[in-house]
Specification:
The structure holds two protein chains of two kinds. By secondary structure, chain A is mainly alpha-helical. Helix content of chain A is 62%, strand content 4%. Chain A has one domain. In chain A, the strands form two sheets. Chain A has a two-stranded antiparallel sheet. Chain A has a two-stranded antiparallel ribbon with strand order 3-4. Chain B has a domain of 113 residues: 2-Layer Sandwich (Alpha-Beta Plaits), CATH 3.30.70.3270. The chains are: A mainly alpha, B alpha+beta. The structure holds iron/sulfur cluster (2 copies).
Chain lengths: 376, 179
């Protein structure tokens, strides 16, 4: 219990700290890509910049427009912050740690529906933006909120389908199972990481994750050039800080999910040479390195691509992403069915293993299988 | 018809090929460009410590010049004030008295001379108009103040001190006026 509490607090503090420094990283990356230096006045290399920004946010006037809905106006950033923080709970940050004979899982909760939990929390996240935009009583804010919600709803579908593809291959909804299943780097004559087994699924997931985080090129909700900040136009002081912070936490968490689902999480090549706590610590470091790499990719994309137009966004979401994800799902299903031996007359052939899908499928599929088998 | 500048481009609305429709190759190409910029030399000058050298034609804060003997050049003819499109210059003139020959070069001089730096658009027409080579724009930047009155520069700020001459030789070499 105490240990869980420590992990919760540590995760909370680490996530907040990382999110704060991601703002600095973003500004530095942006600066380097534009042949500039970036913030360098506060502390060595500008390392104290996030503190200065935070301090500024705290001491600004806490302004609320006259016609804004008081409670909703306060609740909006709260929800955004809350939902972005709870998603970190189900991510396995590393292999088990052993201290004084006790096994400590580096994960707040290994719920067996982890990935569903994340999808749920992400969907709730749009409420924060929606409520914030609505409560501001400002047309720009409302526009931003409407765009954000329609964008999130459209891209959640493709994201969900690509997650289902991964779940089908693993046979489990628990993120730890999904990560453990990608053990090592090379297995049975093929890479064990999901990105090599499902590259299309990975690309779809990456794009939809960008959209879910409201990051450029999908930052229509903010759109500082047309909507002067979108849903947080009317916000100031720490309430604005919460919105911005929630965005960076979201980005960090989605990068963690990408590296867990597709890049093997805490698995790395040659991990079998280590064991115990060394493995746990190395694994955690590897996981964070992968996550930060994707954070960099997110920023990289932001400072490369211009924003999509609204109709282009919808076009890509509904006419490209979802069909691609669905076709990919279908093909994956057929391949799994084939390797499981559904199509063969010989029932004994069911355990035939495939190069790509080495893991047996979970309960759900075997249930389906019996049904199909009966109807045949 | 041949266009004058020859820079006209006809927009093509050709159908995109499959590779172009995929977007991804183009996006990766763009990302490669930004990635290369990560390692390029940055062009930032750390301003208060390092200052960029101005071009000789830069038009900054004015100076009222003295001649070699330290006498003020300006004869309060008012041509600069007439030329000024922003009506930033005002002055009052006075006759030179006996014994002031070492202060003023001409028989008439400006007893007050004010430029409102908030009105001034730094066009340089005053410099162009001056028949006595008295007023020049320099590479100095007019700083900011909190009060509007502080922007009205009088003779105390405009006339160069005898012992701290303001160098305008570069400006004279820009071809605007003979050296
Ligand atoms: S620079 Fe132009 S605007 Fe300024 S005082 Fe001279 S003539 Fe007037
Ligand atoms: S600065 Fe030149 S133009 Fe202006 S009043 Fe003096 S002499 Fe005349």
């Amino acid at each position: 219990m105490i240990i869980k509490l420590i992990i919760v607090v540590a995760l909370f503090a680490i996530t907040l700290g990382i999110a704060a420094y991601l703002t600095l990283m973003e500004r530095k990356v942006a600066a380097w890509m534009q042949d500039r230096i970036g913030p360098d006045r506060a502390g060595p290399f500008g390392l104290l910049q996030p503190l200065a920004d935070g301090g500024k946010m705290f001491f600004k006037e806490d302004f609320r427009p006259t016609n804004a809905d008081k409670w909703l106006f306060i609740i909006g950033p709260g929800i955004a912050m809350f939902t972005s923080l709870i998603t970190g709970a189900v991510i396995p940050w590393g292999p088990d740690l052993k201290i004084a004979g006790e096994t400590i899982a580096l994960q707040v909760a290994d719920v067996n529906i982890g990935i569903l939990f994340i999808m749920g929390a992400v969907s709730i996240g749009v409420y924060g933006i929606m409520i914030g935009g609505w409560a501001s009583n400002n047309k720009f804010a409302l526009f931003g909120a409407i765009r954000a919600s329609s964008q999130m709803i459209s891209y959640e579908l493709a994201m969900g389908v690509s997650v289902i593809t991964i779940v089908m291959m693993t046979g489990s909804l628990s993120i730890r199972d999904i990560v453990d299943q990608q053990h090592g780097f090379w297995d049975n004559g093929w890479f064990s990481w999901n990105v090599f087994k499902q590259p299309i699924c990975f690309i779809v997931f990456l794009i939809t994750a960008l959209a879910e985080c409201n990051r450029a090129p999908f930052d229509l909700a903010e759109c500082e050039s047309e909507l002067i900040g979108g849903y947080h136009t009317e916000y100031g002081a720490m309430k604005l800080g919460f919105f911005l912070f929630a965005e960076y936490v979201n980005m960090f968490i989605s990068c963690a999910i990408i590296s867990a689902l597709f890049f093997g999480g805490y698995n790395f090549p040659g991990m079998d040479n280590f064991s115990g706590n060394t493995l746990a610590i190395l694994g955690t470091l590897v996981f964070f390195a992968k996550t930060f790499f994707f954070v960099f990719v997110f920023m990289w994309i932001r400072w490369t691509l211009p924003r999509f137009r609204y109709d282009q966004l919808m076009h890509i979401g509904w006419k490209k992403m979802i069909p691609i994800a669905l076709i990919n799902l279908l093909i994956t299903g057929v391949v799994i069915a084939y390797t499981e031996g559904w199509f063969s007359k010989n029932k004994d052939n069911e355990s035939a293993s495939n190069v790509k899908m080495e893991q047996p499928l979970g309960v759900n599929t075997s249930f389906e299988k019996t049904k199909t088998g009966n109807s045949l | 018809m041949e266009s004058l500048s020859n820079r006209k481009k006809v927009v093509s609305n050709k159908k995109m090929t499959f590779m172009e429709k995929l977007y991804l190759p183009a996006i990766l190409g763009g990302m490669w460009i930004t990635f290369k910029h990560l390692f390029k030399k940055h062009n930032t000058l750390k301003y208060p410590e390092v200052k960029r050298e101005f071009a000789p034609v830069y038009r900054g804060q004015h100076v009222l010049k003295r001649d070699e003997e330290g006498r003020e050049n300006c004869t309060a003819c008012g041509l600069c004030a007439v030329a000024c499109p922003a009506e930033a210059i005002t002055m009052t003139s006075e006759e030179r008295k006996k014994g002031e020959e070492n202060l003023y070069r001409e028989e008439k001089y400006a007893s007050t001379y004010e430029i409102n730096m908030l009105r001034c658009i730094f066009c340089g027409l005053c410099e162009e108009a001056c028949p006595k080579e008295a007023i020049f724009l320099t590479d100095r930047i007019v700083p900011t103040y909190f009060e509007r009155n502080d922007f009205i520069y009088g003779k105390d700020k405009l006339v160069e001190p005898v012992d701290q001459r303001v160098d305008i030789s570069k400006r004279q070499l820009t071809g605007k006026r003979p050296a």
